[in-house]
Amino acid sequence: MIKLMFTAKTKSPEEWKIINSAISTLVDEATFEATSEGISFRGMDPSHVALIDIFWPNTAFDSYQCDSELKFGVRISEFSKLIKRTDKKDELEVSITDQDVLRIRTSGSYKREYKMRLIESSSGSTPLPKLSFNSKLVLSLSAFDKILSDIEVVSEYVEIESFPERIEFLGKSDTGEAMVTMEPNSEGLEDIEVKEESKATYSLDYLLKIVKSVSSVGVTSAIEYSTKMPIRLEFRIANIGRIHFYLAPRVQD
Amino acid sequence: MQSRRTSEIKEAIMKNWIQLQKTMREKISEKMIVSSPPSIFIGSYSYPKVSIGPLVSTFNEDTALFDHPEEWAGQSLEDIIKYRLSLIRGTNPTTVNIASNNDKLIETLQELTMAIKSTNIEVNFAKEPIFNFDEIKKNGVTDSDSIHYGLASKINDLKLPSGLIVDKKIEKAYYDKDLKAIEAVTKLYNEGIEISKLSKALSIGMIGIQKNRRIVPTKWSITAIDQILSSELIKKIKNFDSVNFYQVYNYSHLDNTYSIILIPDKTWCFEMHEAWIDNTGNVEIETDIEVAGRLRNYPKMGGSFFAARVAVSEYLVQNRKSAGIMVFREIQPQYLLPVGVWQIREGIRKAMRKGPRVFDSLEKALIYACSTMSVSKKEWISNSNLLRFVKNQRRIQDYFDKTQ
Prior knowledge:
The complex is a heterodimer of chains A (253) and B (404).
Chain A: E1 6-10, H1 14-24, E2 29-35, E3 38-44, E4 50-57, E5 63-66, E6 70-75, H2 76-84, E7 91-98, E8 101-107, E9 112-117, E10 135-140, H3 141-152, E11 157-163, E12 166-172, E13 177-182, E14 189-194, E15 199-203, H4 204-214, E16 220-225, E17 231-236, E18 242-247
Antiparallel strand pairs in A: 1-5, 1-7, 2-3, 2-6, 3-4, 4-18, 7-8, 8-9, 10-14, 10-16, 11-12, 11-15, 12-13, 16-17, 17-18
Chain B: H1 6-27, E1 31-36, E2 40-46, E3 49-56, H2 77-86, E4 88-95, H3 104-114, E5 119-125, E6 130-132, H4 134-138, E7 150-159, H5 168-175, H6 181-190, H7 195-203, H8 218-237, E8 241-242, E9 246-253, E10 256-263, E11 269-277, E12 283-290, H9 303-318, E13 321-322, E14 324-331, H10 342-354, E15 357-359, H11 362-371, H12 377-381, H13 385-392
Parallel strand pairs in B: 4-7, 8-13, 11-14
Antiparallel strand pairs in B: 1-5, 2-3, 3-4, 5-7, 6-7, 9-10, 9-15, 10-14, 11-12
């Protein structure tokens, strides 16, 4: 009998799609870690500007089994290709039965099975940045996407400035300026908490890529930052525990 | 390569020229059988009126090398100039609009351009070709201009041999009158057609949707191809993973020294610096930058920028990597006569092919990159927006909890 080292079942393939798509904004190859508590991923992009921290708890799965801790490395584009073949309503089982192979089984309209060769997993673990946040806002993902896209028309980066009752998004370039103001009654703004007025600048390229990668299923995003410090985005997505995205600021000397 | 004095190079060029004139004068006449590499030249002197014609040689040997920039990297300035001077230019005034021309000469030049090897052709000049100084005298010349300096004369008639062997890929694109120019250029490039060939095909109106086909002056067609191809390559690069370390590539030819620095980055940033050094040691640096894939203005240095961009982006696509890029080009006064942007493209291609020196910090990479040049690191980077961009961007590991 084949001993299953790790099996995780979900009611649909959507969660894996989102996770792959979020990770693919930063890296091509990813090492997941599975424990009895769930699956996690943590990694930075090659220029070490951004970091993704994902924790997907066992309770979020239809069924989950992992007897001992294990790491598995995948090429995200390969993994995505296979997952994309599945239908929305397919139940999905991802398992590892031997060291080198990830098995993906679907049941729905018919039974499908893929085996994907794993790649060497990275050793060592990425720590998390130690941060305290002075400003927090909760935005619907669609509003966030729109604001960033508004700014992107004129600039490659966005300056976010918070006031007790207002958040401003600002973009500047040689050709002109763009500004979006969010106030408590603005559509899409769900919460705003400003302990201390904060101002920091971030690369739009990174922000837009990650926001777009999760916007198909994500609902809201909690945005936290402090003056000249990294920003943290928390995406709230059904059936996935935590997707945190950290991005280091741009600082003018 | 050991540095030579300007006077030595001048002497070598003159010696070649006198020698050439002697051999050519023996054969030259109004009506001749000549060899074409194959090559054509479109002058832009009063656009949209242009002058078109073949470039031909009185040498009966294989003349392919006389117009084959892909083979020229590393050769001496006098050799390159000798190739140029060996070619006689036929000229014929026409307008850029092909449809209104229906010109037999255009068709013949198109067929000639498709030839896969140097070809003997019969030319009939209005009068014996003479030395044409005009284009050199009229303009200050930079590398962005492709000029012809050599003998020229109005051409009355041009006959190709029957059974000319043409390149099937270019021929196919030529007959595909619905294939957009950008798609055709990309397709042919991916099929292995050389960049110098592509620009000729574009210049004589052989590619693109039928109604958009035009005659394009040679110097514009060269930069158009570099620009189109690199834009398409950059689109691919956006999907690739960043290089993992700082890498420096270098190469030197024709008294031009190149250093290319690749910086780990997922976003396409490309900055090029050109330092022109004159006889008295004065340095003038020009810089153009494209940040996050956006070129806001047409580069001040013109076609040099795109020639460099195509060489670097081609390398990154071959290696499936992305990076931020800085290119330093230093031009010594011994570079007496600009020979064309091909020398930038091919010089950088050589540098990339040689492979990198790898560094774990930008500072070390910069020190090494500048060590092969006479302009100091401080001078180079004082103009760099890319560096400011890279330096202003904090890294997430700067905020890791060190006590963990």
